[in-house]
TrEMBL record, chain A:
A biological process from GO: translation
Job description of the protein: Binds to 23S rRNA.
Protein name (Swiss-Prot/TrEMBL): Large ribosomal subunit protein uL23c
Localization (cell): Plastid, Chloroplast
Record-linked SUPFAM superfamilies: Ribosomal proteins S24e, L23 and L15e (SSF54189)
PROSITE patterns to which the protein is assigned, alphabetical: RIBOSOMAL_L23
Alphabetized UniProt keyword annotations: Chloroplast, Plastid, Ribonucleoprotein, Ribosomal protein, RNA-binding, rRNA-binding
Organism placement in taxonomy: Eukaryota, Viridiplantae, Chlorophyta, Mamiellophyceae, Mamiellales
InterPro entries for this protein: Nucleotide-bd_a/b_plait_sf, Ribosomal_uL23-like, Ribosomal_uL23/eL15/eS24_sf, Ribosomal_uL23_CS
GO molecular function annotations of the record: rRNA binding; structural constituent of ribosome
Subunit structure comment from the entry: Part of the 50S ribosomal subunit.
Automatic annotation (TrEMBL), chain B:
Gene Ontology BP terms: 'de novo' cotranslational protein folding; protein transport; protein unfolding
Organism the protein comes from: Micromonas pusilla (strain CCMP1545) (Picoplanktonic green alga)
Known EC number: 5.2.1.8
Keyword set, alphabetical order: Chaperone, Isomerase, Rotamase
Trigger factor ribosome-binding bacterial domain span: 65-218
Basic residues: bias regions: 20-31
Catalytic function, reaction form: [protein]-peptidylproline (omega=180) = [protein]-peptidylproline (omega=0)
GO molecular function: peptidyl-prolyl cis-trans isomerase activity; protein folding chaperone; ribosome binding
The protein's name: peptidylprolyl isomerase
Assigned protein family: Belongs to the FKBP-type PPIase family. Tig subfamily.
Domain Trigger factor C-terminal positions: 358-501
Length: 87, 530
């Protein structure tokens, strides 16, 4: 479960959010908000204040069918905490 | 973890942090959730504090410092120390430049002035830009920008005396790149690089240029002009004659001869290359032959006959090393023509000189033209002598860049002449214009180029010392005439270069006028009469 963060998101919005300790990343669709919270807190030893998630719109693949879906999570950490993976 | 966050923030450059702080404090405030204001406020203060510290640190040491060393030979070395502040500025410029030029996925196209899109004036994080552009390329761009920022400041030290485009950066570019080897191409410390600049030579006059005195050998006086005009008249008249092949008698004065010519030095028996000529055509009836003795030697020769006879070269022979040398000439007569010259009547006057109605008028006009010619030659000879005299008392080291530039100009002039004269095809000219050929020319003709540069330098110095002024009308007239000349031949030209050149030409002419006024010019009689 160490790589439960599938992808770190670096976009204009995510970098703006970083300034207020909100970190954006993609996770497995099956993870619930509470799962994400416990995982982050256990793995990185930080305190999570809130977790917001959404599922991205589905994308069709070039050969028909749908690409694997992911869940995007935006978590807010306690002031002063940080995730080293985002450095 | 707290320290890690701080570290991640500090990677964003001070200006970006400042901008971020400002943005949060104004535009986004209304949308902030009620739980965060205290923390956000705290951040803002921290950012502002960091920024102000940077400014204070920068204020003490953000100037480019230059150390100047004189290398002699018109060269000056500048050791430029670029502080971190300037490097940071260069890096920031690069970040903004690349962000404006590239479309980074996930970010709005950056526009410094703020575009139409929301967030267009927000710079993506430095790491993202550097990653997107490539670390190596970004570092190179930073180094270049740093040079752009610091070099003009460094050059200010020598701006009064430096020669245009003569600066040369001696430090290798790789060393400059090392300056931006930090994380995300951040500057690692002060950089020192050295530049060599060529400066205007300091001119020492070994004599007084106000009291020049030159002796010019006149190319001709009335007497020689009359002789010359007579010769021209005769040649033209003979040119109108009808030729008939002669087979049954020997060569007589007045015949046209075609012969193979060879000469060996009578003492050393070594051949003289300059004289060897095949099918050399000689008009024995011409009033003046440059080589006295040649005609006497060949009189009476028959077709196909070979004769060898000695001739002592005259003292006014063009090649100086042959003057006074006795040479054995071998002449092989190939063809003889009899020239039947028409009587000089008024009917053929117009053929001798255009628009002449009588022989007398034609003769007069030829004489006039000859006198004009002599006058122009005298003027040119005077100018040359004056400038040479000026160059002789001008003791100055010559900057290599000027010498090279002049050499290149001379070479391209030669090319242009060849092109206009249509002696060569475009392919040949392109071949001749190859860099190796130019370098070869520069090497072989170094002395003559240096002489010309010395003349130019001396004239320029004179122009400056005497405060000679050029009026605007004169300058405009010169520019227009130069432009017309270029257009007549359909050659491409650079307008700025043309204006510069026109200025130089006018300066030279004015200096010459000044010289002619102030120098003592003695005109010696023509060479043959001394």
């Amino acid at each position: 479960m160490i790589d439960f963060i599938k992808r770190v998101i670096v976009t204009q919005k995510s970098t703006t959010l970083l300034e207020s300790e909100r970190y954006t990343f993609d996770v497995d669709v099956h993870l619930k908000k509470t799962d994400i919270k416990t995982l982050v807190e256990d793995l990185y030893g930080v305190q999570v204040i809130s977790v917001n998630t959404h599922r991205l719109p589905r994308k069709k693949s070039a050969f028909g069918g749908v690409r694997p879906r992911t869940k995007r999570a935006i978590i807010r950490l306690k002031s002063g905490d940080s995730l080293p993976i985002f450095d | 973890m707290a320290s890690s966050s701080a570290a991640s923030m500090s990677t964003i450059s001070s200006a970006a942090a400042f901008r971020a702080g400002r943005r949060r404090s104004t535009a986004r405030r209304s949308r902030a959730t009620p739980t965060t204001p205290t923390r956000r406020g705290g951040h803002r203060r921290a950012d502002a504090a960091r920024f102000s510290v940077r400014v204070v640190a920068a204020a003490t040491n953000d100037e480019v410092t230059v150390k100047q060393t004189d290398l002699g030979d018109c060269k000056v070395r500048l050791e430029v120390t670029v502080p971190t502040a300037v490097q940071t500025e260069a890096r920031q410029n690069c970040l903004e430049g690349f962000a404006e030029k590239t479309q980074i996925p996930g970010f709005a196209q950056y526009k410094k002035s703020g575009g139409r899109k929301k967030g267009a004036n927000v710079l993506p994080p430095a790491g993202v830009i550097v990653n997107f552009v490539g670390e190596k390329e970004f570092g190179a761009a930073c180094a270049e920008e740093m040079l752009q920022l610091s070099l003009p400041k460094a050059m200010e030290v020598v701006s009064a005396t430096a020669l245009q485009d003569s600066e040369k950066i001696e430090t290798s570019f790789d060393d400059l790149l090392k300056a931006f080897s930090g994380k995300e191409c951040e500057p690692t410390g002060d950089v020192i690089y050295s530049v060599t600049v060529e400066v205007v030579p300091t001119i020492k006059w070994t004599g007084d240029y106000r009291k020049l005195s030159v002796t010019v050998t006149s190319p001709g006086d009335d007497e020689t002009d009359a002789l010359e005009a007579e010769a021209i008249f005769n040649t033209r008249l003979r040119g109108l004659g009808t030729m008939r092949v002669v087979v049954d008698r020997g060569l007589e004065i007045g015949d046209q001869a075609v012969m193979d010519l060879e000469a060996v030095n009578a003492e050393t028996r070594s051949p003289i290359d300059g004289i060897k000529q095949k099918k050399f055509s000689l008009d024995t009836g011409a009033a003046r032959v440059n080589l006295p003795g040649l005609i006497d030697g060949i009189i009476g020769m028959k077709l196909g006959e070979q004769r060898t006879f000695p001739i002592t070269m005259p003292n006014d022979w063009p090649q100086a090393f042959l003057r006074g040398v006795t040479a054995d000439f071998t002449v092989d007569l190939r063809e003889v023509f009899e020239n039947t010259v028409p009587d000089p009547t008024d009917d053929i006057a117009s053929q001798i000189y255009p628009d002449a109605t009588s022989i007398a008028e034609a003769k007069e006009k030829i004489l006039e033209a000859q006198k004009e010619n002599t006058k122009a030659m005298l003027e040119q000879a005077t100018n040359e002598a004056l400038v040479d005299a000026l160059a002789a008392i001008c003791d100055a080291p010559l900057p290599a860049s000027i010498v090279e530039e002049t050499g290149r100009q001379m070479y391209s002039e030669k090319m242009l002449e060849a092109q206009i004269g249509q002696q060569m095809s475009m392919d040949v000219i392109n071949q001749l214009a190859a860099p190796e050929m130019v370098d070869e020319y520069l090497r072989t003709n170094k002395e003559s180029i240096e002489l010309i540069v010395r003349r130019t330098v001396a004239c320029e110095e004179l122009f400056r010392l005497e405060n000679i002024e050029v009026t605007e009308e004169e300058f405009k007239a010169e520019v227009v005439s130069a432009k017309e000349e270029f257009e007549r031949y359909g050659t491409e030209y650079d307008v700025q270069r043309l204006v510069e050149q026109a200025g130089e030409v006018i300066e030279a002419r004015k200096s010459l006028d000044w010289l002619r006024e102030h120098a003592t010019i003695t005109i010696a009689p023509p060479a043959g009469k001394q």
